[in-house]
User: Fold this.
Amino acid sequence: MTKHSVILIGLILFVNTPGWAEIAPQYLYHLEFDDGFFGPFKKPGSKWNIEKGALFQENLAKQYVAVYRIGHPTWKDYEVRMRVKFLSTQVSPDWMTIFAVKLWNVRVDCLPGRISIWYTRPGEKRSSAVHRRENSFRVDPNHWYDIRLRYSRSRIAATIDGKVWAELTEVPPKSARDNPMTIYFGNLKCALDYFRVVDMEKTSVVE
Assistant:
């Protein structure tokens, strides 16, 4: 991560951003925290601060914190990329731990070692899920995890440190009321080094 990283100022709320394609056409959304920019992540219910180019979040209450409506309705083949350090996965022993990203109408619980992809089949009301759990896995509070969540109309996959943990190949159709992305934090103290969404139809980004 460098001081020359491109920073998209503001939250994309279903509008086009003039000039953004000229700055970084491969990125649909791109946040770095080198210059102390919080973006849409500064939400009540959590303590937020910037330290050494990373955004730190700590839940302060039992209710999870959600960052809503990131994205644009044209998003259809993209990959969320983030580098995350989980300093604590149990701020309180009585709260539920959540680290999840909802991609349109599919929710990916992506805490390392505890992966679930939740979805609802057309015509059904009850959710189904693809799970990948490793009971012996312990989150390392000193490790930066490289988390990638790929969304397309035919496949959703959760990859951590280069390993595909879970994937879904029966992606349900999205509706007009769905949002491209929602992020959930619950019972966590964590740090984000960066948060990026890559347009996978543009193959120039191979990080």
